[in-house]
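lol ok so funny story. i was supposed to be doing the assay writeup but got distracted and ended up predicting the structure for this chain instead. priorities right. anyway since i did it might as well share w the group, maybe its usefull for someone
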Amino acid sequence: MHLRTETFALNIEKVRHPYITISKKIRGGEPVISGTGIRVLDIAVRYEIIGMSPEDIIVALPHLNLSQIHDALSYYYEHKAEMDKTWKAIIKETDAMRRRHPSVLERKIGKIKDIHG
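and the output, tada:
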């Protein structure tokens, strides 16, 4: 039995994201859904961390449509490593801020459950 091996050249085109805008003037250059100011990372967090479906996200953000949500998720998965790094940096910064400025509510009712842990 003779196994034939072939090499296939992949012609990968850069994916276009018609609903995503990146501009230094908007959210410091973070990718956002065009015309909204909603960051791609906001959509990714709702989907990946909170567990919302695209339809749930539309209910929470009714000014968006399903195409915008899917394009944001597509962009996120295409840039996942760098966006996850940004997300982790935000969490670190938020945690440091919480340590410097304790919550008045937490002092009254006790520690609030950490959903990111």
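Residues 80-100 form the longest helix (21 residues). The helical segments are 40-48, 54-60, 66-78, 80-100, 104-109.
back to the writeup now i swear
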